[in-house]
Amino acid sequence: MRYCNVGEKAVVEYKKIDGGKVFFQSKGIIEVSAGRRGTYRFYGMSDDFYIQNTGKFDEFTATGINPGYVGGFGFGNRGFAPAMDGKLIRGPYYYFISDFGFEEIAGTINCQIEITSNGKTFTDTIMCPNGAYNVSCGNECPEGFCKCIIPEYPGYCCLDCSATATQIREITNDLRAKNGR
């Protein structure tokens, strides 16, 4: 998924397998994907101008995160192009028209996060499923977090809104119990 605007500070916070938090910071548009990295076999009946065996069974393997298909290509926009994390693997002229699918050939036990920024890709092993990552742009907090002003750098912190609300409810209930209400 794509985040932030050109020239804007981008921060990705994610959890490692041991539960520790990691912060990745960059400037500008970033793309983040997370999932189990694996090698997948894509297969199906092709109707691709560039495939010599047009109209016949075709297959290939690819490695990445979140395999699938993107529809709307060739063959009256009824073809499905193989994709990894929503990005076409072989371009819009390579697609299947029927009996298509994919299967995992080899996978990793752990999940991975892949962050692409300024033409460079960073990967790391993360907590499954999907790494529990958050992205913030500029001087804002990630979605689901509340911004609190503090005197230390950078002048604010981000608190998980639902966790904070739960803590406030618990404190309120404790006070009511102690006051007999």
Describe the 3D structure.
The chain has 181 residues and is mainly beta. It folds into two domains: 1-138, no CATH class; 141-181. Helix content is 10%, strand content 55%. The chain has one helix and 13 strands, in the order βββββββββββββα. It has one helix at residues 161-178; strands spanning 2-3, 9-15, 21-27, 30-46, 57-65, 67-73, 79-84, 87-88, 96-117, 120-126, 134-137, 145-149, 156-160. The strands form four sheets. Strands 1, 4, 5, 9 and 10 form a five-stranded antiparallel β-sheet that branches. The protein is elongated. The chain starts with a strand and ends with a helix. The model has no long low-confidence stretch (mean pLDDT 80).
**Helical percent range?**
under 10%
Q: So what's the overall shape?
A: elongated
The class by helix and strand makeup works out as mainly beta
| Count of helix runs | 1
CA radius of gyration is: 22 Å
Distance between the termini: 48 Å
The overall strand count is 13
Total number of domains: 2
Secondary-structure element pattern, one letter each: EEEEEEEEEEEEEH
Q: Proportion of β residues?
A: over 45%
Sheet with the most strands, sense and barrel status: 5 strands, antiparallel
Which regions contain 5 or more consecutive residues with pLDDT less than 50?
A: none
Mean pLDDT: 80
How do the strands and helices of this protein lay out in sequence?
Elements: E1 2-3, E2 9-15, E3 21-27, E4 30-46, E5 57-65, E6 67-73, E7 79-84, E8 87-88, E9 96-117, E10 120-126, E11 134-137, E12 145-149, E13 156-160, H1 161-178
Antiparallel strand pairs: 1-4, 2-3, 2-11, 4-5, 4-9, 6-7, 7-8, 9-10, 12-13
